[in-house]
Amino acid sequence: MYSNNGATSREVVNHWINKEFNCTLQAKHLILIGSPGTGKTSFAKSLPSHYNYFNGKWRLNLWKNFARYSAFDNIGWDQFEEKGYPKKKDISTQDEPFNATDDIEIVLGIDCTQPAIIFSKPGPPEGTLGRQPITYEDRCEAALWRQRAIIYRMALIDQENEKDSNNHINYTIHESIEFLDVLIENVEGKLNTTVFRKPAAEPYILPYTSNHPRLTHSNTIYTALLRGIRLCSDVHTFDQERLNIEIALFFNGYPRNFIRRHFKEFFKNHNSSPIYQNLDEQRYKELHLQLVNESLTDDQRQLPSNQQSVTEQHKNSHTKEKPKNEKK
Q: Where's the Helix-turn-helix domain (predicted)?
């Protein structure tokens, strides 16, 4: 598909008008995906030329061969043929006239030598445009529209940029993003997560030579492993994180035997020794989901428990005051 690369909607539209608008053969469609109120329809009707405009329903008697462009609004990307529209491929080739019909059963030859503007709402109406291609047919379809269309996803940022040119906001689409201490990546359509460390930030681990109780040092190992399993989405990514933990502990004075013993105890206590011994992928997935769910459950229980403690305190206060009232 078309990558925005930080371009604004105005830049994308100007590029399409300058490069594709006047083409009468295999011009690229302009596909704008955005919520209501982002100015898609107003733009489509503002170009100084005759146009075909269809909103939801296909009407063959409204088609004009002499129009400079066509605009298709409020139609799901995968619903063109279902709603009686001509095939998208026929419209996009601009090659030869083809026959089209509608629900009134009118058959008419269409000479489509004009580019098209197609609008879609974000989410389900995007259809295959918003999904990662899985099957061979999906990949062929995606490759076709990479060649025949410029696809742009609009946002409220576009509206804010229009209000004040001095406050220009750019946004980009990347294959990875860092959020807090998590690195999120899109690897061949699959979502992967791992621990993110800022290059300029030095992680701090309590030195083994400190005067803290040994329980504190064992908790340091437990917490690091727990964090690694919750954040790493696959066993191989976690294995790399495990090595990072071992190295950090080793350089902070933790004895090798102490590290290995607590590593083994951690996985043994979670019935997951095959992960530490053989990198068992299936068992890792189970443990990963288990620990993630436990963290969510703890957060959900935190508020009710606080509310319960407040309620108990309130009851206790009334219980203590009651005998005083009886004495009076």
A: 204-264
Where the chain has pLDDT below 70, the residues are 1-8, 24, 37-39, 92-96, 103-108, 113, 155-174, 189, 200-206, 208-209, 211-212, 214, 297-328
Do residues 33 and 121 make contact, with C-beta atoms less than 8 angstroms apart?
yes
Q: Is residue 318 part of a domain?
A: no
What domain range is 102 assigned to?
Answer: 9-163
Q: Which residues are bridge partners to 314 per DSSP?
A: none
Helix H or strand E encompassing 157:
helix 156-163
Residues 218 and 254 occupy one common structural domain: yes
At 151, which CATH number?
Answer: 3.40.50
Q: Are residues 197 and 151 in the same domain?
A: no
How confident is the model at residue 101, as a pLDDT? 74
Residue 313 lies in a domain: no
Q: Which residue has 């950090």 as its token pair?
A: 248
pTM more than 0.70: no
User: What one-letter code names the amino acid at 60?
Assistant: L
